[in-house]
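Researcher: Structure prediction, please.
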Amino acid sequence: MTPIQFILNRQSCAALSAPAPNDEQLSAILAAAMTSPDHAGLAPYHFHVVTGSGLDKLTQVYQKAVKANTNNESKIAKASKMAYRAPMTIVVSTKFQEHAKVPVQEQLITAGCATLAMQMACIALGYGAMWRSGDLAYSDIVKQELGIKLDDEIVGFLYIGTATKACAQKSRRPAESHTTYWR
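Model: Predicted structure follows.
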């Protein structure tokens, strides 16, 4: 597969199980994040790598956040399973910094690019990965429990593991309807 074919065939994969990347592979995944475009070299992101018993702790965080907002037992039950979607989760958050030439929007985009770079690295290493967000990404309780400042953002939860089934190739929209040419 050529590099462009690799990019064009990128798929999120939700059906993930063990094994997760080993330490050497995880280092490569994190190194991929560090290649993201980064105006002024601020590195405006932070990564919480969650595995093993850390998934139990993340479950408690998810449950606490959901319980604070609802008494709905089905939502609480769903929250109790979310951390176990994969054997590894990387919670990507911003680490906004004051900078005269780099507004927070650019820093958020950098953190998003880092997340995509990690997802692509997972795929290149033969793993599946799913980037999710949702209500818990916007929860102050989740931020507090993870030690993320409230004025920073959770960019997403990158679930990583071995794909348990082939990910269906989804159709892509043609770029033409989203493109204007000035020639």
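Model: Residues 71 and 77 are 11 Å apart (CA to CA).
Researcher: Thanks, that helps.
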